[in-house]
């Protein structure tokens, strides 16, 4: 049973809008933020149009090994630090599996910017404040921009002559 492209409802060839959707992440994202771009079993099930049991059969898992080596014939989950962690998959891996193993044609991956988080908003406001500080410092007249010159100017003005 091969999933049918359903362009009438705006879904891509394997069931997600315009194909599988991955969220772009900052290069220095923490582990909690990295999980935002990953998809769980339910999303994989919908994307592949397969039953939950089938998705688990496809998945590269081993009860004796928490993170088994890559298997090109299986759906490889992302790294887990604990057996109780849920299985999470990178959208590119799901697309690879759909194309190479299930032979689903027309598999595309669309990368979207992730929604702004509270951390990103805070960092943006800090950056804006730093830019305004830099602008004010640049516009100060007669002030040395070199730290050693500033130190010399401060030392000359505050020390009494001996």
Give an account of the 3D structure.
This protein has 162 residues and is mostly helical. The chain has helices at 31-34, 41-48, 52-58, 91-100, 118-139, 147-158; strands spanning 20-24, 109-113. The chain has a two-stranded parallel sheet with strand order 1-2.
The fraction of residues in strands falls at 5-15%
Enumerate the spans where pLDDT stays under 50 for 5 or more consecutive residues. 1-34
Strand order of the largest sheet: 1-2
Q: Supply the number of helical segments.
A: 6
Q: What is the structural class? A: mainly alpha
Describe how the helices and strands are arranged.
Elements: E1 20-24, H1 31-34, H2 41-48, H3 52-58, H4 91-100, E2 109-113, H5 118-139, H6 147-158
Parallel strand pairs: 1-2
Helix pairs in contact: 2-3
What's the quick description here?
The protein has 162 residues and is mainly alpha-helical. The chain has helices at residues 31-34, 41-48, 52-58, 91-100, 118-139, 147-158; strands at residues 20-24, 109-113.
Properties at a glance:
162 residues; mainly alpha; two-stranded parallel ribbon; 6 helices; disordered N terminus
């Amino acid at each position: 049973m091969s999933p049918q492209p359903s362009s009438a409802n705006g879904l891509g060839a394997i069931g997600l809008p315009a194909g599988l959707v991955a969220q772009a992440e900052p290069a220095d994202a923490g582990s909690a933020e990295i999980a935002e771009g990953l998809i769980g079993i339910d999303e994989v099930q919908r994307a592949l149009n397969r039953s939950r049991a089938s998705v688990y059969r496809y998945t590269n898992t081993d009860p004796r090994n928490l993170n088994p080596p890559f298997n090109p014939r299986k759906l490889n989950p992302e790294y887990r630090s604990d057996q109780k962690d849920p299985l999470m998959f990178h959208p590119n891996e799901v697309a690879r599996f759909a194309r190479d193993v299930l032979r689903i044609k027309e598999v595309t991956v669309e990368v979207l910017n992730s929604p702004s988080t509270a951390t990103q908003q805070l960092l943006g406001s800090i950056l804006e404040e730093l830019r305004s500080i830099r602008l004010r410092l640049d516009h100060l007249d007669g002030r040395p921009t070199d730290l050693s010159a500033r130190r010399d100017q401060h030392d000359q003005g505050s020390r009494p002559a001996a």
